[in-house]
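Reopening this ticket.

The earlier resolution said the output was attached, but the attachment link was broken on my side. Pasting everything inline this time so it's all in one place.
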Amino acid sequence: MIGRLCIVTALALFGFGATAVAQSQQQASAVSEIAPGVFVYAGQTALMTRENAGAIANVGFVIGENAVAVIDTGGSVREGRQLLAAIRARTDKPIRYVINTHGHPDHVFGNAAFVNDGTLFVGHKNLPRALAIHGPFYIDNFRRIMGDELIDEVRIVRPTVLVEDSLTLDLGSRRLTLRAWPTSHSDNDLTVFDGQSKTLFAGDLVFLDHIPVLDGSIRGWLATLGELNTLPAQRVVPGHGPIGEWPAALSDERRYLDTLASDVRALIARGAPIKIATETAAASERPHWKLFDDYNARNATAAFSEIEWE
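Inline output:
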């Protein structure tokens, strides 16, 4: 109890108002321990807005004997601070690593809350380039959506520890295995596997309930799912949606991507224009996914642009 009071006091001293402190306490209590030492805050299945402060992705942290690793930081610095408060409500061990599973705003906009001497930012070898190219656009775009108050604090924090293939991080009697994947959901996807608890943090390589979002290669993503399926996990923390059993959690996503690819190929084969693909491809999947109408047309556009060159 004393530790929690100290955290709240510190937040107030660093400029948090009563509302922000209450939000931090709420997020701290909303974090679930899904396995010993493994914690997850489940984001809303929604678009990023001013009202939800960008808290739409699953973020988490793992506590070892000597240190903590954070996996993604959320869609705003406000959410990042709330995640930090949730960590400090549970341990005072140093936060040695912040791991970004990829470069989309809902996963990296909270990074600035963790900039500290001794904290290393870790990402896919392609992540620095992706952030350099897309970061300014993301900030401008979400400023219009979320407002100056939330976005003024956002900083594009590039990783200094890069994963080209795989990398093991030691938290003290607890090792995390990081793996960089070929272009799939994006061109900078990274997974984090905690061998002690058999928990896989899959980032946006795995979606549950929330429709998958294609920003890379549909063919690459389907190939990656085949390899992911072999990982010795027991549970998966997807980028979006509920925690799932492994590898059963892959089945709905694989069906959606297979259906999208098959429908697009059939449309291309009969000479249909891309507009028809955006309206009809994977339409049979609509009942199975939240936010279908927000993303499926975009997915169909990306798939069509890729597959028409096969």
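Reporter confirms the inline version is readable. The radius of gyration is 19 Å. The longest strand covers residues 199-207.
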